[in-house]
Design goal:
single chain; alpha/beta; Elongation Factor Tu (Ef-tu), domain 3; Rossmann fold; six-stranded antiparallel sheet; six-stranded parallel sheet; globular; binds flavin-adenine dinucleotide; binds NADP nicotinamide-adenine-dinucleotide phosphate
Length: 247
């Protein structure tokens, strides 16, 4: 059986001029929250395929992806034109190790993301298990503008259901934030405001960090945390920092 199958577009939500979510239905294999699959089109006999993280919880048959339309990109401008009823190709099998079963038990879980990379965290947060495994879950979203803070309804719902467990910390870099912190995630870690903002003190004994998105943010944040005595999390040598880069 081919690994590529048709996905039928059910819904397209535009959050801003460049950010949108696609919901599709397709006969895909089960996946774990945090994993990604590929979407693709054929350009003549040439396949154009890119990786996209699932946003929906694994048991939800509405397969959802959160995307940015990169103006000079090869695939995303095509995906930005999709309408309900259209089809696109999807890889049946999801992959990736950016999943909660790879993360050691701890008191605090820090989910650090930029831009569309909030997606895999939203998938994880829609699973009851994560709320049992960690006492404090902190979703940090670094964006350029307030308008880039999508998925507010889902996040507000989680804040309502888990008021004592869940912190949501937007970090807005290019204008005054309407909520959360100003600047970059890296600055907020370096000057400790990220942690004082939610009155938590992560240490290697009580915290795990998952970092996803802009590769330079992933690299710089990892280095900062290593400077604070956190270690990369490896299967053979468990640590505190688990990462996924989007490009
Ligand atoms: C594991 C993994 C998971 C991914 N999941 C997602 C996802 O859920 N949603 C998503 O939109 N993209 C995701 N991406 C990126 C995605 O695969 C494509 O790179 C992106 O859609 C742009 O494709 P393109 O062909 O239009 O441009 P490309 O030629 O692939 O990229 C052109 C440039 O666009 C910029 N860029 C690419 N992706 C992003 C992004 N997400 N945000 C900001 N700038 C970007 C980079 O500067 C890149 O060099 C993921 C990538 C990886 C490796
Ligand atoms: N977001 C928009 O409104 C918008 C509009 C039109 C086009 N685009 C296109 O979209 C792409 C960018 O998308 P994006 O805004 O989602 O992603 P992005 O450029 O990765 O920015 C997201 C957030 O990550 C921060 N960041 C970048 N490098 C970092 C680092 N090394 N350490 C810590 N934080 C870092 C940014 O801060 P800084 O702001 O300080 O860089 C910003 O707050 C580009 O191709 C752009 O041309 C975006």
């Amino acid at each position: 059986m081919s690994n590529w199958v048709d996905a039928k577009v059910k819904n397209v939500t535009w959050w801003s001029e460049t950010l949108f979510s696609l919901t599709v239905h397709a006969d895909v294999e089960p996946f774990k929250a945090g994993q990604f699959t590929k979407l693709s089109i054929m350009d003549g006999d040439k396949r154009i395929a890119r990786a996209y993280s699932y946003v929906n919880a694994p048991e939800n048959p509405d397969l959802e992806f959160y995307l940015i339309n990169v103006a000079d990109g090869l695939l995303s401008p095509y995906l930005a034109k999709l309408q309900p009823g259209d089809t696109v190709l999807i890889e049946r099998r999801a992959t990736g190790f950016f999943t909660l079963d790879e993360i050691p038990q701890s008191e605090q879980l820090w989910m650090l993301s930029t831009g569309t990379a909030i997606g895999p965290f939203l998938s994880m947060l829609q699973q009851p298990e994560v709320w049992e495994k960690y006492q404090h879950i902190n979703l940090v979203h670094g964006v350029r503008f307030n308008n880039d803070l999508s998925y507010q309804a889902l996040i507000n719902e989680l804040l309502k259901v888990y008021p004592d467990k869940f912190n949501y910390i937007p970090v807005v870099s290019r204008e005054e934030p309407l909520q959360g912190l100003n600047g970059r995630i890296t600055n907020a870690i370096a000057n400790n405001t990220l942690f004082t903002h939610v009155k938590l003190e992560p240490t290697p004994n009580n915290a795990q960090f998952m970092i996803c998105g802009n590769p330079q943010m992933v690299k710089d944040t990892t280095e900062l945390l290593i400077g604070k005595n956190f270690k990369r999390n490896r299967r053979r040598e468990p640590g505190h920092i688990t990462v996924e880069q989007y490009w």
